[in-house]
Amino acid sequence: MLTSDERGIKPLLGWANDGLDAAGFSAADTIVGRGAAWLYVLLGASAVHADVLGAEARDIMEPAGIEVTCDEEVPFVINRAGTGRCPMDLAVEGVTSADEALEAIRRKVAELAAGAAS
């Protein structure tokens, strides 16, 4: 069993960067948007349950064979400030593969970290 108290996409990204193979694993998450969905595909999860699920996340995970359930489905995930769409979801807009998504997410995380440092 893997758990994390880290916020957002950080735990998934860390496991992806470490090369974790989660084939056969089921996951439970608070919020799953498009960015997280691509990481679950990359990690090889078999099932994902989200408290809140962005509709586009379902469209990414189900074709990859991931069973998807949720408590609430929303059109898209909003950012923490509540002012717009999730930056990770925006980072993977137009992406067509899990590997491409990983690179886009890494770039966005680095960009956000650089902005926070300045």
Would you kindly provide a written description of the structure presented here, covering whatever features stand out?
The longest helix is centred in the last third of the chain and has 20 residues, at 98-117. The protein has 5 helices and 3 strands; from the N terminus they run αβαβαβαα. The protein has a single domain, classed as 3-Layer(aba) Sandwich (Cytidine Deaminase, domain 2). The radius of gyration is 13 Å and the shape is globular. Helices cover 42% and strands 19% of the residues. Helix 1 runs parallel beside helix 2 (34-43) and helix 2 packs parallel to helix 3 (55-61). The protein has a 3-stranded parallel β-sheet with strand order 1-2-3. It has helices at residues 10-17, 34-43, 55-61, 87-91, 98-117; strands spanning 26-32, 47-54, 67-74. By secondary structure, it is α/β, with parallel strands linked by helices.
Brief sketch in words of this structure:
With 118 residues, this protein is an alpha/beta fold. It is built from five helices and three strands; from the N terminus they run H-E-H-E-H-E-H-H. The longest helix has 20 residues, at 98-117.
Keyword list:
118 residues; alpha/beta; Cytidine Deaminase, domain 2; 3-stranded parallel sheet; 5 helices; 3 strands; globular
